[in-house]
Amino acid sequence: MNNFFIILIHTYMSKLKTKSFLVTTILTAAIMLALTSMPNIIEFFNKGEADRVAVIDETGQLYQPLMEQMKAVNKDVEFEKYKGTAKAAAKDVKDGKYEGVLELSLNGQNLPAASYKAMSIADSSIPADLQAALQQIKTMMASTQIKIAPEQLEKLYEPVEFEKAALAKDAKTEEELNQARGLVYVLLFAIYFAVLMYANMIAMEVATEKSSRVMEILISSVSPIKQMFAKILGVGLLSLTQLAVLLLVGYFSIQQNLESLDGDIFEFFGFGNIPAATVVYAVIFFLLGYFLYATMAAFLGSLVSRIEDVQQMITPMTLLVVAGFLMAMFGLGQPEAPFITYMSFVPFFSPMLMFLRVGMITVPFWEISLSIAILVATIAFLAVFGARVYRGGVLMYGKSNSFKDIKKALQLTKSE
User: Fold this and answer.
1) Residues near 284 by beta carbon (within 8 Å), at least 6 away in sequence
2) Which pTM value belongs to this model?
């Protein structure tokens, strides 16, 4: 057991001190800080640079209604009624005095028409806001022409009354579903990226040690299953360390940006009143998903002799993770689809799909228990089978990047 902890601590500390881990953690934390502070960053760079638009109103009646409509659409755009010609306004745009020039006119039906000119139309926000405001003006003018009273027009555009109610006793309300969807969405991404990143790290760790021939010494003094799970747990602790750092950075950054807002971080994300059971299942399926793919990565990594071959060997495993993630994205909109239900019992997809169902809908406890039992059994099988492949695989050298090498590894294990 002492050897187990020696390998575990060595794996954890050696990876913790690497430049790649430190740079990745710092860079990811910096990106999180930038994303959570994006409104303040944008406001800082836009300070004192309001978008000014010159308006040439050929009708003499559209300028004021447009300003009133734009107050509701985009308050950051400043208008100036331009008294010169369109040619002069275009020159002022080129000189940087205005963001653009808007020409207002009436078409053959005596309804608003407009032309917007700017140095570039790559930024579509201002033209889109102007078009939306003019559309409202056109609707009001057209209703006046066909003699529709404002009350009738308001009634015409009033949203239809549509209520949704679930008949099942324990079914979630629409508000609870939207709330659960936010948590499930975030945690699905966490599972997806954690499995891809850290499972790959385990495979690389095994391949690196094998390429240096350290394995020949380790395998004679420590049982393969102890060695394999020591590496899995070592990288698992590393992942928890990195996730803890990123969560703390993200939490405090968001708290700083929420000082001027009511509520707290959980209300900001819509995570208020999340059932404790959902959080517990999130942790369970996250850990089981990690151990499942980490075990696969460990024995697949033991089959290659060169670090360059690791990606090729673990590609099928990566495709399984991607497939599960894509199915989960589909399931966010249709969590009760039969396809999602059936696939949630497949161990390679259940960490994402069963958790999706648990978070979104009411799932019988026996289904959750069965899914967890299948997952645990699969992990146990992969641990035993993987340990045998691992023991023989780490002694295989030369070009070894095919799944046919699993048979060779098992034969080496038997011959010892």
Assistant:
1) 372
2) 0.66
